[in-house]
Design brief:
Length: 349
């Protein structure tokens, strides 16, 4: 995924070459000339993409560490700046997040990763995370802006780092499908952390009870591909994943789930350093599960609002709120499905 500043550069390349062309001038161009100009713009944009590196603005790192996780090499760099936390505490948190991602996917999704920790003066907590593919020779690159006064407790409770690393496990999609990139990361991050032993299942289902309603279509909604609000992008995408996960498990009598589909996408090369249409990834996922759940659900949800009866779904999964907590019902229709979603599976490496 490109950042906003990289997109502005690429846009500037295009604009600078075409801003002086009026409609009448373009109509007088020969087909060959037009194709040559379009080729020049494409080449210029490719050069910008190849040369752009968000780490360059921070200079040489003050410290570097190398981690081996899930068959991948992770280079962890600390940019210049003060942090109250020792480097080894931050390193252990990064290692834990990467292990959770490798646990969910069976391997870490890309073979080489660079993670840049950028201290933010006079702030606390993880301020921001951004992940790109194919940057500076790295298939995956994540920048974490970490507050100078972050405490060990704040870092331990953070979800952003794992969320960002999950992004590496799916191809870069066209802008209209950004909801799938963010929805997957929103849905998988807590599940991966349960599978890795970081969180309890009750904790993440409680959070889903709070979060999933934010993804429901509102008046005027035109489907996930056409409605780019915050709620539909993050929680609407997560709701798509939850419903798909349950439906795959229903269709396969709980032998397969979304996790199997996503592992197959990664195995086929569908990672952040590759640009794919969404349908290619969904078709691979359906083949892996022996169903048509993903493609059929996408056809329904992409261009029309599709409300979900969440109260019914929670009842089927055996999840009920009790004050600020949740309780599970082992007798619920989909209780075994709920358990399978968060059950850890062995690494492939």
């Amino acid at each position: 995924m490109w950042s906003e500043d990289a997109e502005q550069i690429a846009h500037a390349v295009t604009t600078s070459q075409f801003c002086c062309l009026t409609e009448s001038m373009i109509s007088n161009l020969s087909r060959r000339t037009t194709l040559l100009m379009l080729g020049s713009v494409a080449a210029s944009a490719a050069i910008v993409h190849a040369q752009w590196n968000p780490a360059l603005r921070y200079g040489p790192p003050r410290a570097s560490h190398r981690l081996q996780i899930g068959g991948a090499t992770l280079q962890l760099d600390f940019a210049t700046g003060a942090l109250d936390l020792a480097d080894d505490i931050v390193t252990k948190r990064i290692e834990m997040a990467a292990h959770a991602v490798a646990t969910y996917y069976g391997i870490f999704p890309v073979p080489r990763v660079r993670i840049l920790i950028v201290p933010v003066a006079d702030r606390s907590g993880v301020v921001q995370g951004t992940t790109w593919g194919d940057v500076g020779g790295w298939p995956g690159f994540t920048r974490i802006r970490l507050g100078q006064h972050t405490t060990q407790q704040e870092l331990a409770a953070d979800w952003t780092i794992t969320h960002e690393l999950v992004h590496m496990a799916f191809p870069t999609l066209p802008d209209d499908q950004h909801w799938m990139e963010e929805g997957l990361a929103t849905y998988i991050e807590p599940i991966a952390r349960v599978q890795a032993g970081e969180l309890s299942a009750k904790q993440i289902w409680r959070d889903m009870l709070d979060g999933m309603p934010k993804g429901e279509p509102q008046p005027g909604d035109e489907g996930l591909d056409r409605t780019h609000t915050w709620g539909r992008t993050y929680w609407g995408g997560a709701l798509f994943c939850l419903v798909a996960d349950v439906q795959i498990r229903v269709a396969t009598t709980n032998r397969k789930g979304l996790q199997d589909a996503l592992r197959a996408v990664v195995a086929a090369g569908g990672t952040i350093d590759h640009d794919w249409p969404l349908t290619r990834a969904l078709q691979i996922g359906d083949t892996a599960t022996g169903t048509r759940v993903l493609m059929e659900q996408y056809r329904s949800w992409s261009t029309s609002p599709t409300p979900v009866d969440l109260e019914k779904l929670w009842q089927q999964l055996g999840i009920q709120r009790t004050g600020e907590q949740v309780e599970f019902s082992a007798a619920a229709q989909y209780a075994k499905i709920r358990e399978a979603i968060t059950q850890a599976r062995p690494l492939s490496v």
